[in-house]
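Write out the 3D structure for:
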Amino acid sequence: MGSAASLAFGGLASPAMAQDSDEEAESNVITVIARKQTETLQEVPVTVTAIGGDTLEKFQVNEIADVTSRVPALNVQVGGSGSGGQISLRGVGSSNISASFDSAVAFDFDGVQVSTMRMVQAGFFDVEQIDVLKGPQSLFFGKSASAGVFAVRSANPTRSWEMAAKASYEFEEKGYTIGGYISGPISDTLGIRVAAQYQDIEDYVKLAPGTPAFNPDGSVRDSRGLQNFVGRTTLQWDPSDNFSANLKLNYIKNENDGGIAHSDINCGANGVADPIFLLGGGVIIPSNADCNDSDGLYHHADGATALTSQVPEGSAGNPRFENGIPFGETEIFFGRLKWDLDLSDSLTLSSVSGYLSLDAVDTDCYGYVGQFAPGVAGGVGCSDPRNTTEQFTQEVRISSDFDGMFNFMVGAFYETRDIDFNTSQQGVNISFLSPDPITGNTYDWYKKQNTKTEALSFFASATLDLTDQLQVSGGVRWTDENKTSRISVPYVHTFLSSGPAFIPSGFFSGPIDFSDDNFSPELSIRYQATPDVNIYAAFKTGFKSGGIDNSALPSSSLLGFNDPDPAVRTAVADALKFKSETGLGGEVGVKAQFADRTITLNTSVFYYVFDDLQVQNFDATTVQFQTFNASQLTSQGLDVEWAWRTPVEGLNFSGALAYTDAKFTAPFVTTSGEDLDGRTAARAPKFAANAAFDWSIPMGDAIELGLNGNVQYSGSYFTNEDSLTDLRQDSYVSIDGSISVGDPDGKWKLSLVGVNLTDEIWINTSGGRPFLAPAGNGFGLPAGDDLVVTQNRGRQVFVEASFKF
């Protein structure tokens, strides 16, 4: 997760730079796979930021959060107990608090679309290239690409044997990273690459002084840490001229001290840290928050003993969470097999098979604060969500490479996915009255939900080169997706199940079915005005399937599933479903290079309308997640990327600018009761930009000095989508920089790196803090209005040594 090697300061979000010689210029041309085929960045009629392999190798980028400062339209949040993260582009993304949502921005890992955002938590390393495709990409990338694609291509075996290693230490969070790879040919036809990285951060989350948090030995804890391991083996097999195969096997293990991570408390308009208000005021726990949500110190209390003493049998926190100390574990196995067979000189059959197995547990107390007395933990709302996902995908396609004006691609895609989302929860915190008199459990309930998905799609595209300069292309994808979800509640606390508001233990819903299908057409035209200027226009559509919400409480409303009236059963099931999300619009762009290709300027304007945008908010009064389909969101704006290889040897400048006007353009009434029609979307600053430089200065034949810097700017933006007065993040500036000395050929390098040197803390999302006192509570307390805000990491300063043999 926390990369101690994010050195991508100069040129990261820029196209490849032409070099002094024609050979060097040709070797630095960046290619992308934006349309399932290899094309140059400057020619493909898609708005895409390509982070080239040479740049990634040089600057050791290995975390998605490192990329956001170089792609201004991109927003990434890591953490949360739902999906585990979210990616949004141009103001369009999916909630990180819902594991039932697919991502609106597809995460494409080595050609496999991964629906779960837990891959965002895991990070990446040893990467060949990153492509960020903006706007709907459903034709070529299918499901979960309604807003764009974040594609990662890991490095492949090399033609000759080489080995590289790196080690770094970060001073602010007290973390170290070690990693490396070995790569080369086993035989004339078989190559291998083995890469691994381990990271250990002691102060990943720094706790505020006096926070009631403890280590297992009883000593007071002042921080929460993280350990992360990523390993990958790649095999490349080329037994003949007409066949090649590539196998990638990835293993990821992440361990941390809780799922809340960088979530702070904003004390709202009343200006006070509101207490935890439970059981109608029968239990009131003082907050330990200090109302300073910009100091990078957090107040995550351990669980109160009365609530965490006995976890229900079979739940993920049993028995480890019975000490009330949060922990998290994520284990991922990911495999991908890709092969290409030339059926003839002009036809190629391609196959991509993907397999994902994920097991993630995030235990924490989602009241976020609380202490009965100094040093006495009062964390409430504790839960132990466990997300297990098994996914298999298969894509096959035939593509042509005719000499004439016409070429085509046809293909099919299949996905099967099985998700278990199970958790014991404290929604009422009834065990403050007493543990369950029958079982002794101290949790309110244990709820399980399984969702199975099957998706099938067929797609076809064609390209017509009408002249040497004019190309027209288009196609369509048909998708059919079916989901079946089942809810079971093995346990409900006796005090709750004996009343009218909750269901009894042993509840089972039976199957809840959802299905939808969609046609997603696309059309583009490209005109090559000169060898260095391409003009393009594109009409695009996007589709992201709906589904069944997995955040329903085990309330008496679920008893309708057992009603003999089928109309009642249907109504209860329909209340848990959300509709599919679609996008439609287009963009016009110009990709140009000047002055012997030393200056690059790529510009595009876009306009897209998204219907039934999938949104999930949290109702802090009812302590319930609410799933919506926002009626309509319109995103329009301008993207600019530029790069300049200056006449000064080794000095390059680059940057990007994004203007985004994303707002709700139809009635959308949320949990607040307000209509957000006309309000700006969350996480969509009007202006965002970055400017970077990198300078490689020869210091003789054996030494090279490197200077790098990046300045990121973001305008202000809303942090939630619940009311007209949601919290706004002010505009901010963040600065990165590094200085290095090393061998000109990369054999060794020593670096001093600073990330977010100004220690700027900004808010990604916000929402009501659970268990707030209502107005007119009868205890003389003001109506609670505290907000939980999720934030970025603060300043990081580290040293790194790397070697390559």
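The two ends are 27 Å apart (CA to CA).
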